[in-house]
Amino acid sequence: MGKTKRLLTPGPSQTGSPSRTAGPMDGYLGTPRDMRAHQAAAKMAPPSPDASSSDSPATGPAREESLTQIAADLATISANMMSKADKTDLLAEIRAVIREEVMEVRRDLTALERRVEELEAERTQIIQHRQATDTATTRQGNVLLELRRNLEDLDNRGRRNNIRVRGLPETAGEALPELLL
């Protein structure tokens, strides 16, 4: 699931030249290179009217250098921005990852569904077996009760046939015919 992230556009460390000087847009673009020099230049008073027009920052070579620097900064920023093709590729990668993860979740869900069905089938078999066991146990309990009743009845009937004669010795060694006559 964990793909390595592929950079679609080069980062600022890959495109910009390392010897680039700070430009007037750096304060707005978040690059804090030589911020003090930029702030000092911004706090300076406007040039006096008697100064030559060629040295004026509004019209002279400093302005052209400033505009060149701004153009270079804008080119760097636009080079670092993602193009439409890069965004499309990134979106396709994200969709592929999501599709793969959804398929994995579906496979897991199918496997869990199969296991639940197997467990339900086993549960049904166990319930049927328990019901059969309960029925057999109840039937055996009834049979055992009936056997006890029959045994008690037979014992009572066997005692009814026992005749007790008073005065007869219970030992076998005595002469029984003499006693009866």
Automatic annotation (TrEMBL):
What are the coiled-coil residue ranges?
95-129
What are the protein's UniProt keywords?
A: Coiled coil
Question: Compositional bias (Low complexity) spans?
Answer: 40-61
Bias (Polar residues): 11-20
Cite the residue spans of the region called Disordered: 1-65
Protein name as it appears in the record? Uncharacterized protein
Organism expressing this protein natively: Pelobates cultripes (Western spadefoot toad)
